[in-house]
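I trust your eye. Have a critical look at both lines of this record:
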Amino acid sequence: MRWGGPFNPNTDAIYTMATLSGHHRPSLDLLTLFDTGTELTCIDDRIASTIGLDESRSIGPVSFEGLTHPLEGYRVLAPRFTAFGRELEDFEIACVRMHSKLGIDGLIGRDFTRKLRTLIDEIDGRILLTDERIPLP
């Protein structure tokens, strides 16, 4: 299968829209940053709690180093998470307090692309995710 989408290659990062489903609301659109340096997909805990993904549904704690300070939070299983057209069910996400200066709702981490070939075209601003073999020249 193949998934993917465009991004603006003239910005300082790869921003994309994602959709998160919770337990109290069918889905919520999020502005996320595609971050290959982040191990787990993270969503702001305030946003997660508005759709029923609050700490009462935690499957465990999470802690890692952020850009400015350590981040502490909890992990939940999101009923559905979609980005770049790829939809995952019962997807584990980390719910942490995102710094408001970032202007994003969350980060898409390496867990989202694990076991996929991820091609990032920095010139044309395209990402291709696939589980197929791609011959390269």
